[in-house]
Structures
1.
Amino acid sequence: MSSVETISNSPGQTQRLGRRLGALAEAGDVFLLSGELGSGKTCLVQGIAWGLGVEEYATSPSFVLVRPYEGRLPLYHIDFYRLDDIAEIADLGLEEYLWGDGVCAVEWAEKALALLPEEHLLIRLEHVATNKRRLLLEPRGNRYIELLSSFSRRPKRA
């Protein structure tokens, strides 16, 4: 399966799409989120968290870089927004998260693609209109092709 494109017409719908991804997530999954400021990355992570059974409301970890949440699997919400130097990102020691037993959701992943796991689900978010967003989900590796196949079989109405 190649990439899947979907449209979200509201922040709530973006969260519901994320919830579907979180419900399908397995230990070791890595979701890389890319998109301009305000494109819905954090809304999507909130849904992923809820899909994993996290009861907290996920917020952007821009100032702490990694915010962990406990659900049926640990979720590590990573945000590279404030980082511009790939060497600085490399020095963060994120290996235990990225190659661990939890689920990682990385905002602003485009800043460090060379350092991130080769196999992942890349999710590109872009503004279409005021509350409308286009999400392009691009699987890299068999695990993510399978995940996206399951995601696509589930009802599109989020």
2.
Amino acid sequence: MNCRLSIWIALLLASVVAWGDDGVAIPPQEVTYCQLAKDPSSFLGKRIRVRALYVYGFELQMLKSPVCCPLPELKMGVDFDPAMDDRSEKLFHKLDKGMGFALAVFVGRFERITNVSSQLPSGDRFQLTVDTVEKVERSVRSSGRRKDPSWVPRDCTVSISTAAKAELENGTNRHD
């Protein structure tokens, strides 16, 4: 009897460890985009939750800061895991048409990109492989002639918002 119990416990522990290896069972670490820009290497390989601006178009899928950060822009591509849950899949497919912007909360694994892609400028490159789209706050399709929506940050090198400074200093992630 003790032998069977020991085997059962060993199998149970092995399945729990294996379940955690795929990254989906591990709770994500809450992080702001500004925190990622400040020290991206500290989040490598981790499953994170981040509120970001998703910029998409023909052969372009990038995440950008939803607010002006007092740091250089992080070059971050985005990929969507084909095994996303149904709710995330529906939210993603609402966005996946043409060109546009979306302000959303994403959960996924943060990685350094080793292969060179034409999607991102040169320099350090990172990617968030999204397994969950938690929320789409705003979205708009765009055309080359139309001006960016007012909720897309602009002229960040000139003025840094008070909210962005507080977000970076406090590590808070506001969900407006």
3.
Amino acid sequence: MNAPKNDNKFVPKQAYAATPQLYDKIVGFGMENLAKASLSNETIHDGITIHDNGCGTGAGSAAIMSLIADKHKNISIKATDIDNNALAVYQARAEKENWPSKCINVDCHSLPFADNSIDLSLWNNLVFILPQESTLGLKETYRTLKPGGKIVVNSWAYIPNLEPMQVTAMTTRPPGTQLPRDGLDEWYNANKLEEVLIKGGFEKDKIVVEKVEVFTETVEIVQYATMLWSFVWGSTEAGWLKSDEERWDEAIAIFVRELRKTEGFEELEDGRARLRFMANVATATK
């Protein structure tokens, strides 16, 4: 989700708490739409065992269920994450919607699954937030996949809100302060996914990479900017600064102004926005 990388306890009085619930409000159906687009070429057949790796609050599993014509089909979803707060949200949704899933707190670098036991592993919005370019996690996934099993992994190829966040940070924060999501644009190159999958043990000729569009609709645009600005800083090494509280309104105004300039922005009549993302999706077969 958004694991803190600092011990800074200061939080501006204007900031929302960076909870899984806030994350869900920010992304809307974006993460579920990303998972749907990533899985669009896959057949969820009877008896399949699926690993929803880094499941968060359930976007990937919701996408899986939406792709099943027969809701009573005999499938099994093993959902894992290291965020207990996110898993609590996942569990409540799984119970409410009667998903054939079980969620557990597991680090993707050490999976509790037997060798050759998983048919399909979904890495939705996960690979680029892991350390060491995710090699250890991918090796674990490779180990657990059955021969002929598949991993579906995605990364962003274009994020309309990334540059506005970074412009806002450069304008309102001291020079040299770490930028939010710094380095994420490395993953815009589709070859990056292929490279990390090969390091994880997958063969080059069994990897297919494609680019897909993903859309989501936001809440009212100023509220959206406030929520996103609130969420990102807890995960940076710098954390919050005292000056962030003093320059809060300026930062939000800059973010909104810059977001409106982006290629992926469309303002809706009610003050919300429709955002267009692009994603690289790789499917690799063991």
4.
Amino acid sequence: MFRPTDADAALNRAVSSGKPGLARILSKLLLLVIAAASGGAAAAERVSAVRVWPAQDYTRITIESDRPIRHELLMVKNPDRLVLDLEDVDFASVQREIAEKILPGDPYIGQMRAGRYKPGVVRLVLDLKTEVRPQIFMLKPVGEYGHRLVLDVYPLVPVDPLMALLQKPEAKAAESAAPGSEAAPRAAPETAIEETAGAAPSAKGKPVVARLVTIVVDAGHGGEDPGARGRRGSREKNVTLTIARKLKAIIDAEPNMRAVLTRDGDYFIPLQVRVQKARRVHADLFVSVHADAFIKSHARGSSVFALSERGATSTAAKWLAKRENDADLIGGVNLDVKDRYLAMTLADLSLTAQISDSLKLGKAVLSELGGVNALHKSDVEQAGFAVLKAPDIPSILVETAFISNPEEERRLNDEAYQDQMAQAIFKGIKRYFTKNPPLARSTVAALDRAD
């Protein structure tokens, strides 16, 4: 085998013998040999991180490196396994990064292990707990991430806990009316909803709870998308989930209301899917909870935003909408998947009525937030937020505080403040419903069929 040392010796002989032409040829040969040798040594790309995000919707596995990873995915039966072959990657880095990444509670993956399959190929094997429908795609570097190879493991039969809500008997309403139950003595609140406009009042003149008002609470960011970060290391995705869970608990305690979380764990959901989930349960309201950052650390206060079809109401609102809409780039969306339902959801529909109702809701919520925190702006702002584009659901985005402000970051991590913020949002929702009762379920279903 011709080695770099051989080429170097031949070059020295050519130079000393007075043959410049041969020396030039040998010089080029030496450079090629050295490049090939160094290229072979650097061919094994080190994997910098392997992250696993388990959830009921799906489990995501992200493999990050400095360069794109060539790969091949295979499905194997008896028993069910996914086999992912990674070309020209460093085996030791893969083995180190996958250690103890699969949690016992992962609904789809039982175990993940790596081995040397053949020269230049590392084989990653995923033992499955059930039949799955995998998707795999590459993401280019963005933000703090390098090249990412993303494997999404979906169940063969999608698990949809939101649709299950529609199939359950509305036990809360029945229990509240049942004789002898603890809830029976409670008077129906002012926001109780009738199934039809002509429903008869109860003996005490109060409206009868005929169905539950459904409010979708959206915890911003999650998984690969951490959202904004505070100086003390707080992550927006964690703060928003905590406040969203508190808000859900308050709503669920009402006899005529129920709340649905778009995510109830640390995993990524595309913006369009958040909208889709709200529409599939015929939500009466959509509230997205955030705690963003701004370029200036002294920016502070709570804000409420609604959708705008005609541009943002301020430079800050435009900047914030772009930052939120970029969440899909950071979190990682498979652009090769075409979903007709999602395309319809965010189609260019007339949103005039939705925006009008959203502004009313936003104003009611903003007035309550002012009792908990200073307001960044005294009016509801508007911008082109993708997550607010459900055409038939009043939708708002609540900025609970600026996580980039050191004092507000501290408050966002305080349980008392989180409780107060959730209560304020809820009071705003109730205030809105007092003047704007939602449509009957039959009417909502008819609108959905019309789509």
